[in-house]
Amino acid sequence: MGKNLVIACSETGDVSLTQALEREQSPSLGMDCGLLAGLEPNNLLITSELDASLFDVLVDFTHPTATTHHVDFCSTHGKKMVIGTTGCDTALEQKMHDAGQKIAIVYAPNMSVGVNLCLKLLQTAAAVLGDSVDIEIIEAHHRHKVDAPSGTALKMGQVVAETLGRDLDECAVYGREGQVGARDRKTIGFETIRAGDIVGEHTVLFAAEGERIEITHKASSRMTFAHGAMRACRWLEQQKNGLFSMQDVLDIT
């Protein structure tokens, strides 16, 4: 994803890449990030230390532990953030909310324009279909993804649950095995696939007797997430503070 972000920066005329970061143990430290991304050398060497004097917006696609540190750093130094890290717990999300009192943050488990359009479609579908359907969310990613279900799948479930007046923590069912009995219509099911090099696929299934509706998004390249992050960076230029989503960026709230 880091390589795709470097490429996206190079393709976005009014965005300049000023720092490229990796974890302290990364073998990429000290390398030219342009070369590493398959571009011409840009003489920007990868480091593990943030320098507040060098950037206005930090784009963070890392790990919740690193993101926690970055939120503290940016809040202290008055720097804006675009956060695409998944697997964030309630405490980290609260930290983002608190930091939003001082700085502007766009936080989204998926930066894809298509996925965020799907979230809007899910609101409409859930509102129309109500409790007359069974709802299942199926997601597939590459074999190296460490969190499950994906942040996008959970966000989809949250959108559907909130539209239906349900608490996702109470109605979610994560996989089924054995004699589980008849399905409770008020539950929202999640199924996870991890295989090969699948970039990201998400389907929300609304199934009734005699018909079903499926809302599906399939990503074939991580560049879609990187370009979404660049769009969020540009949108943040006009924001002083607050915690925002990609739907705010796209004006489809």
| Major β-sheet profile | 5 strands, mixed
Number of domains: 2
User: Strand portion, in percent?
Assistant: 15-25%
Q: pLDDT average, as an integer? A: 95
End-to-end separation: 27 Å
Radius of gyration: 19 Å
**Counting H and I runs of at least 4 residues, what is the number of helices?**
9
The helix content, as a percent range, equals 25-40%
Let me know the CATH homologous superfamily of the largest domain.
Answer: NAD(P)-binding Rossmann-like Domain
Low-confidence stretches: none
> How many runs of DSSP E, i.e. beta strands?
9
Characterize the overall form.
globular
Taken in chain order, the helices and strands follow as HHEHEHEHEHHEEEEHEH
The CATH class name of the largest domain reads: Alpha Beta
Neighbour order of strands in the largest sheet: 5-6-4-7-8
Annotated CATH architecture of the largest domain: 3-Layer(aba) Sandwich
Q: What is the CATH fold-level name of the largest domain?
A: Rossmann fold
Helix/strand-derived class? Answer: alpha/beta
Assembly state of the chains shown: single chain
